[in-house]
Amino acid sequence: MKKLGIGIVGTGFMGKAHAFAYRAALAAFPDIPVPVLRMIADANAPSAAKAAAQFGFEASSGNWRDLVNDPAIDVVSITTPNILHKEMALAAIAAGKHVHCEKPLAPSVAEAEEMMKAAEAKGIVTQVGYNYIKNPLLKLARQMVEAGELGDITGFRGIHAEDYMHDPDSPHSWRLDPVGGPGVVADLGSHIIGMARFLLGPISEVNAELETVVKNRAASAGATERKQVLVDDIARLMVRFGRGCGGMIEANWIATGRKMQLGFELTGSKGSLVFSQERFNEMQFYKAGGDPRNGYTRIEAGPQHPPYGQFCVAAGHQLGFNDLKTIEIAEFLGAVGGGQAAGPDFREAWEIQKVVEAAVQSSRSRSWRNVL
Amino acid sequence: MKKLGIGIVGTGFMGKAHAFAYRAALAAFPDIPVPVLRMIADANAPSAAKAAAQFGFEASSGNWRDLVNDPAIDVVSITTPNILHKEMALAAIAAGKHVHCEKPLAPSVAEAEEMMKAAEAKGIVTQVGYNYIKNPLLKLARQMVEAGELGDITGFRGIHAEDYMHDPDSPHSWRLDPVGGPGVVADLGSHIIGMARFLLGPISEVNAELETVVKNRAASAGATERKQVLVDDIARLMVRFGRGCGGMIEANWIATGRKMQLGFELTGSKGSLVFSQERFNEMQFYKAGGDPRNGYTRIEAGPQHPPYGQFCVAAGHQLGFNDLKTIEIAEFLGAVGGGQAAGPDFREAWEIQKVVEAAVQSSRSRSWRNVL
Amino acid sequence: MKKLGIGIVGTGFMGKAHAFAYRAALAAFPDIPVPVLRMIADANAPSAAKAAAQFGFEASSGNWRDLVNDPAIDVVSITTPNILHKEMALAAIAAGKHVHCEKPLAPSVAEAEEMMKAAEAKGIVTQVGYNYIKNPLLKLARQMVEAGELGDITGFRGIHAEDYMHDPDSPHSWRLDPVGGPGVVADLGSHIIGMARFLLGPISEVNAELETVVKNRAASAGATERKQVLVDDIARLMVRFGRGCGGMIEANWIATGRKMQLGFELTGSKGSLVFSQERFNEMQFYKAGGDPRNGYTRIEAGPQHPPYGQFCVAAGHQLGFNDLKTIEIAEFLGAVGGGQAAGPDFREAWEIQKVVEAAVQSSRSRSWRNVL
Amino acid sequence: MKKLGIGIVGTGFMGKAHAFAYRAALAAFPDIPVPVLRMIADANAPSAAKAAAQFGFEASSGNWRDLVNDPAIDVVSITTPNILHKEMALAAIAAGKHVHCEKPLAPSVAEAEEMMKAAEAKGIVTQVGYNYIKNPLLKLARQMVEAGELGDITGFRGIHAEDYMHDPDSPHSWRLDPVGGPGVVADLGSHIIGMARFLLGPISEVNAELETVVKNRAASAGATERKQVLVDDIARLMVRFGRGCGGMIEANWIATGRKMQLGFELTGSKGSLVFSQERFNEMQFYKAGGDPRNGYTRIEAGPQHPPYGQFCVAAGHQLGFNDLKTIEIAEFLGAVGGGQAAGPDFREAWEIQKVVEAAVQSSRSRSWRNVL
Prior knowledge:
Four copies of one chain form a homotetramer.
Chain A: E1 3-9, H1 13-28, E2 34-41, H2 45-55, E3 59-61, H3 64-69, E4 75-78, H4 85-94, E5 98-101, H5 109-122, E6 126-128, H6 136-146, E7 153-161, H7 184-187, H8 189-200, E8 203-211, E9 216-218, E10 226-228, E11 234-241, E12 246-252, E13 261-268, E14 271-276, E15 282-287, E16 296-300, H9 321-336, H10 346-365, E17 369-370
Parallel strand pairs in A: 1-2, 1-4, 2-3, 4-5, 5-6, 7-12
Antiparallel strand pairs in A: 7-13, 8-11, 8-17, 9-10, 11-12, 13-14, 14-15, 15-16
Helix pairs in contact in A: 1-9, 4-5, 5-10, 8-10
């Protein structure tokens, strides 16, 4: 059984999620290479050491370069803020590591392209953390679209709204620093844009409006000093897909009340699907015509929807957020081990970034923009 | 007790709805003038006669001018296709009748304006059939916005989607004739635009895309001959409100599966509301902060939400579509009797028409348009 | 066109509901006899006069016997508290009137039986106000059961819970007077028992527990004096149906939060149905086997579910509580006019009363009781 | 940091769930002892070896006694069919191991009592796999009851219904063998009985009806031979709680359509809760009185509901079934390590078994039975 040495850079929200996933991946997917948890790195060395103990890694370091240069490490997960992604990813690629990087891949299209080209030139396997599309029901949705079960697709309405930025007194953070790229259109928008692409293919044209509703925020926790906000906190997009249909997309991180409203309504000539991450173990399906008892059917996730069955043999027991991350990591390890790459890889993340960029440009010019 | 002679023009879907409403209005609202059901008119005289018997009208006619000219009639309801509205309304206004007209008021802004000006010059009471905003919970929503209960409004996402046009083999009809004005943006779009205005006030700017997805339809029921469709069946709008916030609106009559998806998500800095006509006796309300048990609260319509109690003293028993029409008609009769006009009147309908028109222009020019 | 003179006794919640229904019935159901609104009676004569004006009745009286003895009246609706039903109904029957009586029919099985026998001896048409089963979707549910679409029925779980008695400081009322019979098991229990019988046929055996949770209440509104409560406010029943399956039923009028939780889950070997009056324009249907996309389908009420189409030609627009009452009254008038009796008639109400009585006896003896 | 050697007996559905949980426990709960995965045993030795590799155990065995007798093992998880629990548990207890055993603990009260007494005599820590009550929202529900937030509890309606036995052609299995004790009342009933006890305390009296609806099943997969079913597949219970209120409980494994309908409606004088495992990351809460905007509030699980935050710092991301198992195992390991025992332990499982037994006896005698 092939083994792969694993390294994680970062110990925050996503670092922990990756650690859970690497610990669970083989138990759920016995055919992937065995992940061996080698090292976890964090600029704060004691945090790294603590995380190593907690997550079962053999070693830790306060310097991510130790990890990238460790010959026993085959796979690197980058879970740091996105302004750090490029330097780390390029170093890891140069060292021949396979790289999983959190989203958004980079602050700009140019940087994302540079990373993608480096990875492809080196021939390593990449993946980017768009975990929500790993949901077994999303895989089903895509299959239904591809099989024509919904007929010709006539429209898409997508949303990713949360409220974690809705309080003007919550402190300013790196997510609000324009050095890291746009605001919510990149942070949450990239998720729903990626989901739209996963389901329907390329977005060819965008007409967007981005706005900064909360003009300034506390400079730091509890501070009376205010700091101006320079990035968008609501983004509204009209889009055209390459396949010919249109749609609307909203990204919003001041959506008071919403914790995880990532979802869509997808309409075709023969049927439609409605999904929200708020109840991500179910999906509504309407099939036109015929049956006098028709209506929206609530499909509950079960073993008939791979890879649900890798986690539980019984329907209705439900996957959690961390399980989606486990599917993602397992697919990545499977691809590294010689299986089929499931993506989304750096190229796909670059494509998503181009849509984000087109939205920013469109909003500035207040006009339709092609996604180049 | 004051009495008002009533005349209805048209005996179709809306003619019947008006008849129900005039029959129920006084029983629900005892303080309005007594409606006396004088005449119902339809180009098909036997239909008119049959309707008169069924709905309890004293007389019928195959000529709507008989009705408009009848001195015993004080109030005229116009429920015919919208290309006929102007001629009928102007005649009724000229005869000094108070006029209730179904929506959309007219095929164009110019015609709507002409009707509005004639009505205002004559000083009669007008109303237009945007019945969905008569819902007690929508009145509550507006009060909450106005009272600042939701804080500063930061965004609106509105939809009116149905699927009654989704089948390409359903026959061509007057709704698809461009002589009557735009397609779904006017038919369903005017409802959600009107609702947005009811809740948040004027829309100042629009950026829209209208498309005709079903290019041709059966020329008539069962015909093999096809007829080209010249009006829109999906309309997507980005909007700016005069109050400063933005929003998105979709109107769609090929939304496979949806029968009455008229609704919105309205977000403010202190709270938010979620509503769908699919379950119009309830509304979700989220109030930010404070309570450790917070979340979306499902407000169920009851006597604490006027005028629900006019229909039923007990909460949770639920109003139906025809009850909304009864509220509308009762408010109209109350205004005619000297009470406060509740609208929406011809002026408001003209304002809605201007937004529809701006959407059409915006879609043609693919650019933002001011609503003049 | 045949005409029927109508008289209503009582002007409260149900008196008003009947008035709405008689006013709307013909407009919705053009083939029934024409109801002519002759008289409304109430012990409080001014209330009767006011109601007559409001509801469009020709006359009013402070003495119900005037109404019962009026030769111009063919049909009598009795909407008074149930201790008054028998005297009024027997007088109306003696006078040859057709009688609609609100539920529960009488305080005891013996009285219900006396009323039923008098009506059957006289050959008049009767009906009892179990309006909830007039829902088009409930008619569909019964058809599905009868057609075997759910296979062999294996179980029923029914509930009718509201909270209008949950406050111990709400004043004592006639509903709490044991002279009127049992408490919630008769008031709400009779609805869900009637619904169970409507769907599945006779209940043959009962094992129940009734309890009085709120032991005393304010003697009258605002009074400090307390009055002991002598009737049940929660009733729990295990039941056996004559068809062979079992079930559970609860009736509860102190169910904090519930306004209209009247519903059931009905399970068969091939499918199941879930319904709640809280959203009575929809019903969940699960069909076993076969389709890989199966799950609970939300059937939305529409014209394909008679008699929905009598009120509205478009699906999803929704009926309200008063519309259910209109269906009930229209079916009653249709039967009086020579059509098929749709019930539930006095005999059915007597059968329901026997189940109620068996529950009371079972609770006292703490044992299973046959429904005789 | 203290370490604990772990052994799991069984590699099926629950064996795998325990393995996931032991792998994830420390990552989520850093303060518990470090679980060291020593051995997994299964009567099928190759299955055990395969599981050891997949789940990361150091060793495997085809003989569970090897595991129980291994001095490096401190903690034993028993995940085999319940007829095997007693022998295994008694051996593990005798060897001084701490024991986690799946539910139901044993086929009978007597056997459960014997196991409980042996464990208490030895002073080891025990736990039984009632994982659903480990849900952060269920912990919240219990706190709300205990804090009086719902007032006096007036009623409980509980259900655990699934449909995995609804097909008469699904093969006979060990779950249907009466040697293992009753049928659904023990298998699923014990979950909802345990949940009722968790929330409201002891059940003192039971009146139940158990029935076997599917009389015979295929003797084995695909066999034409049929085997008579001797255990219950629906159980209906009326119950009285020691605290004074009553309730109803149903357990049903032929509930066509239901995959995981484990839930309750819990009513108090000041509020109520509604929960279903079908959407176990949310709970409905109604608070009586006061607020004019009241209604059922959908509480979404988040970090404010411990221990949700151990898995994810952001609300709305949702836990999955395996996470509930991780909480259970982590609490168990914490107790072994000297923390507070969280249960449910063998004593609690014995108490649950007594309710199950009382239900069986009650059904036979068709009468109320005390839970002794």
